[in-house]
Design brief:
This protein is an alpha+beta fold. It folds into two domains: 304 residues, no CATH class; 99 residues, no CATH class. The protein contains eight helices and 28 strands. An eight-stranded mixed beta sheet has the order 9-8-7-14-10-11-26-27. A six-stranded mixed beta sheet has the order 1-6-2-3-12-13, with helices on one face. The protein is globular and about 65 Å long. 48% of the residues are buried.
């Protein structure tokens, strides 16, 4: 048996009707076959009814595993629904793939920060609400030697930005499970703690499976091939420079001179178009793989330049940068974002896709609707696609997983 995929979408304002419409499309596309995985993306309009949506989708479609999240915008096939109610479903029948659903929680313990809920390879997955000892992740590991770590594994992860430090979790996961690719995003339906909804239901789950914090997801191992595309939508300007003095977020010197002075040089040497883009915001790209001889777009983890200290010439960035690392200034615009995504997708093939795009993209960046979803459809489609607008995107760069902003992170099912 081969993998099969389907998607469904409804913009009906009544949750029960929207659920029936979207689920009906999935059932028809799969010819009534029960999927192994369904991913639900619901707009903020359906937040209060999200538990009912999850239960109904599972019952109607017969999914073995369900995960989902609420968001301020939804991706459905070739469309990006940024306003108004919307419900998008992604379904996959994966007969040769092992799936392990997870619900992760973060706690600040006396002996350090702790993540609870990682699957245990030696037995059934421990639910985080079980009594007795729980497997946890301390400051130096994610789950010891437990959990899937093969290069054929992918973690689809949906997280709440107010209760789950995704960047810290990914940093630990990169060390303990270097072959595990993570793709996903942060729920964006709320502006404060407790407002988002996440869902995870396994084969033996009781209850609604809906939570308001932590992270939910599923680890897929073997069987289906999943390729990840991470388009940061920036382009480098100037030349790469080594950090020669700095502390945490402050870069004091680049190649032996004040960082602010280096930035002023890059702006002075830039084209008129690039200088105009710098007025809209400055970004810093940190090289992920220092072993490469030449660096180009895609070799950098891009972060925003937060400000500068005129008295010291230091520049603050949204990242911890160490002395000796190579960085380069970047600019972001619609044309760069369009070209970057197009370049990454050309030559790819896929049978289905999950899309996690930044809530700063869409019409806000491109001035027209459906950019990311439309490009996937143009270059790879038609194919089943679902996703949502995120408050932060998760995806690998240079073989390591990171939390991004202004990014389109895409899982391509081949």
């Amino acid at each position: 048996m081969t993998a099969r995929f389907a998607s469904g979408v409804s913009q009906h304002p009544t949750a029960s009707v929207a659920t029936g419409e979207a689920a009906g499309q999935v059932i028809e596309a799969l010819d009534a076959a029960a999927p192994d995985l369904v991913v639900i993306f619901a707009s903020v309009h359906h937040t209060d009814a999200f538990a009912d949506i999850v239960a109904s989708v599972r019952e109607l479609v017969g999914a073995r595993i369900v995960i989902g999240a609420t968001a301020n915008g939804i991706v459905a096939d070739a469309r990006e629904i940024e306003d108004g109610p919307a419900l998008s479903l992604f379904a996959a029948a994966l007969p040769t793939t092992h799936l392990d659903p997870i619900h992760l929680q973060h706690f600040q313990a006396p002996d350090g920060s702790t993540f609870v809920g990682w699957p245990d390879e030696t037995g059934p997955r421990r639910r985080v609400d079980e009594t007795g000892p729980r497997r946890r992740v301390d400051e130096n590991e994610v789950a010891g030697d437990a959990g899937p770590s093969a290069p054929t594994s992918t973690l689809l992860l949906l997280a709440d930005p107010f209760s789950f430090p995704a960047d810290a979790f990914l940093a630990r996961l990169n060390v303990s499970h270097p072959g595990l690719a993570v793709i996903g995003g942060l729920a964006s339906a709320a502006r404060g703690p407790g407002g988002n909804r996440l869902a995870v239901l396994g084969p033996d789950s009781d209850g609604s499976g809906v939570v308001t914090g932590g992270a939910v997801g599923v680890v897929l191992t073997g069987g289906v091939e999943i390729a990840t595309v991470v388009s940061q939508g920036c382009r480098p300007v100037g030349r790469p420079l080594a950090v020669t003095k700095g502390e945490r977020q402050w870069i004091v010197e680049l190649a032996g001179r004040p960082a602010l002075e280096r930035l002023q040089e890059v702006v002075a040497d830039a084209s008129d178009d690039e200088r105009e883009l710098f007025r809209g915001g400055v970004h810093m790209g940190r090289v992920v793989d220092e072993h490469k001889l030449d660096f180009e777009r895609g070799d950098f983890l891009v972060r925003t330049v937060l400000g500068a200290d005129q008295s010291t010439g230091a520049v603050a960035v949204g990242d911890v940068v160490e002395i000796g690392q190579t960085v380069q200034f970047h600019v972001r615009d619609a044309a760069s974002a369009d070209d970057d995504l197009r370049t990454l997708l050309e030559g790819c093939h896929a049978r289905a896709a999950l899309v996690f795009t930044c809530n700063g993209r869409g019409r806000h960046l491109f001035g027209a609707p459906d950019h990311d979803a439309g490009m996937i459809d143009d270059l790879l489609g038609p194919l089943p696609v679902a996703g949502f607008f995120c408050a932060g995107e998760l995806g690998p760069i240079g073989g390591r997983n990171f939390l991004h902003g202004f990014t389109a992170s895409i899982a391509l099912f081949r």
